[in-house]
Design a protein that fits this description.
mainly beta, dioxygenase, Jelly Rolls, 3-stranded antiparallel beta sheet, 14% helix
């Protein structure tokens, strides 16, 4: 084994700044580790909810953001102000929102155990009824998610609520 050494995180942020902007908004720090350490930038606005089979650690180190959480009584907002840390338990439907263009968050989570899948859900914006869920063995956030989101956005039947008839905008 070669000698271990640290690197300058601020320099890494500067070198990867273009990845932290739309349309991708995130970059993995290490590609070959057992922990997925990702920096996520703003702005973004998501209407899907992620259901992760593992814990997620959030450190909002620049700017502000929030998580929409789908609770038993419907959605609520969990604020992530600059300097905040938060540990999200597994299987909690959440939708990260980053309205500020210069916001940055470090998200750390273990790689998924074999056979464990992430789920992505869309709920009716009118009555919170579950419209659609897709499960996937997540390998790459950058490559795996866009086709899932596009399939939902392009299918009006998936986006129409069975409970109230409301059409989800799909984006």
């Amino acid at each position: 084994m070669s000698q271990l050494k640290a690197f300058n995180f601020q320099q890494w942020l500067q070198e990867n700044q273009s990845k932290l902007r739309p349309p991708v908004n995130n970059a993995m720090i290490w590609e070959d580790a057992d922990m997925m350490c990702t920096v996520v930038g703003g702005p973004n606005h998501r209407l899907d909810y992620h259901v992760d089979p593992v814990e997620e650690f959030f450190y909002q180190f620049k700017g502000n953001a929030y998580l929409n959480i789908m609770g038993e009584d419907g959605p609520y907002k969990l604020e992530l102000k600059e300097g905040d840390v938060f540990l999200l338990p597994p299987y909690v439907p959440h939708s990260p929102q980053r309205p500020e263009a210069d916001s940055l968050c470090l998200v750390i989570e273990p790689k998924r155990p074999a056979g464990k899948k992430d789920a992505f859900r869309w709920y009716c914006l009118n009555c919170n009824h579950l419209l659609h869920e897709v499960q996937v063995e997540l390998v790459s956030i950058v490559n795996d998610l866009p086709p899932l989101f596009a399939a939902f956005a392009q299918d009006e039947q998936l986006r129409t609520c069975d409970a109230c008839g409301q059409l989800h905008p799909g984006k």
